[in-house]
Amino acid sequence: MAAFEYVALDADGKRRSGIISADSARSARKELRLRDLMVLNVDPVTEKQSKVTIRRGRLSDKQRVLLVRQLSVLLKSGLAVEQALGACAGNENPVSVQKAVHTVRADVVEGARLSDAMALAPDAFPPLVRAVTAAGEMSGKLGDIMERLATYLERSYQLRQKVRAALIYPALLTVMAMGMVIALMVVVVPRLVEQFDLFDAQLPLLTRIVIGLSNGVREYGILIVLVLAALIFLGVRLLRQPAIRRSLDRFVLRLPLIGPQTRIVAAARFARVFATLSASGATVLEALEGAKGAANNTVIADATDFIAERVREGGSLSGALAATGVFPPMMVHMVTSGEVGRDVSGMMNRAADFLDTEFETGSAALLALAEPLIIVLMGGIVGLIVMSIMLPILQLNTLAMS
């Protein structure tokens, strides 16, 4: 069964477009007519076209969360994977979601496992989703594990939304302050320089520095923007190198204030995914493999490899966690208690809840501290510029009075 992209008119004459699965273009047209649609165009969607479309139009976090939740509900209700995917590809979803699901469904129909087929739509189903899905298939509890995955993605999405909402005011404040500084440097300072040139007097050092910066911004502003853009592009490319990414992750974890928060959120993601996989029947090694990429941190990934090696050699999970020195001590203690009570997944879940709460509290405190710091910093910059303008004026007044 192939996927076809269609354009049609409904009973009200409104233009409709989407994706439909059918054996042939003729069958697709027939199905659309049964839906009371007047077909304008039906084109087959090839695998190559689907991949290009998916990569160009990436799914948002919200779309991915809703898709995984919808898929989990359908699988929990007893539908086969193919039927669940077909339902997820309905017209109520955006076209980018429909194309991603149709690409996966076509591969599943041909006999591929769901986790393997998801690799055809990497932007819709990132490595974490594919790893958790693979564990669910191996355990035979795909519906249960997809439900846990959907819950995890929803919590992560809600946490990101809270942080983004809290960052709006500091970001807006920073942009407005930078705009004010640029306006002073580009508009106000040059006009005052014209007035200072009428007097043959030595300007104060601060004034000369500000004038030099102002001239540099006006003359080389475009070049500065291009250089910054090139540096950002180069930085993004360099971060794809494992060695550089690993060094950056280590550096971030050592930073004051930011480092502990980064460690907490990475450990929380690790614990949540490990608990999800372990509670669904995965072995410790399988749960570690699935949780490895959840933290999105190479230091945590390296620590996970070390833990897996120690567990293969017969060591305890809590001992291996403690030996890495990466995970919070509270999490290690809770895992130790879980091993004693034979409920590691439950204690991992509790550790993740505690770490999430700690992260929310810590990030709220950092953001509350950031606002006055931004005000003080930008106020200081504006104050220096104003001072550089006032000093020559005061100097000229002094000369005139004398």
Automatic annotation (TrEMBL):
The keyword DNA-binding does not apply. GO terms for biological process: protein secretion by the type II secretion system. Residues 68-190, 270-392 form the Type II secretion system protein GspF domain. The keyword Zinc does not apply. One of its GO terms (molecular function) is metal ion binding. The chain crosses the membrane at residues 166-189, 220-239, 373-394. One of its GO terms (cellular component) is type II protein secretion system complex. It is found in: Cell inner membrane. It is a multi-pass membrane protein. Its main location: membrane. Keywords: Calcium, Cell inner membrane, Cell membrane, Membrane, Metal-binding, Protein transport, Transmembrane, Transmembrane helix, Transport. It comes from the Bacteria. Belongs to the GSP F family. Component of the type II secretion system inner membrane complex required for the energy-dependent secretion of extracellular factors such as proteases and toxins from the periplasm. This is General secretion pathway protein F.
